[in-house]
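Proteins fold reproducibly. Take a tokenised chain:

. . .
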Amino acid sequence: MDEKSGIQALERTQPMLPLGLGYVEGVTHDYRRHGTTTLFAALDTANGKVLTKCRQRHGIRSIWVFSGRLRERAEELGGAHHRG
């Protein structure tokens, strides 16, 4: 399990410019900010899938909720069990 906090939610002010003959797809360098988010992710090594959850707030409760979700998923699959 890993977390990345403070991810900026950005939106470009102009649409991407299409590919053309002799030049690559273009993007503008200006954007609007829409706050930040926290991403929680875990890799399921049995099938290669990534389990994710985004939260607007960052704190210990968010981590507990996500780790509880991972435990439930592991129990559903009959895999690793939490010991503690």
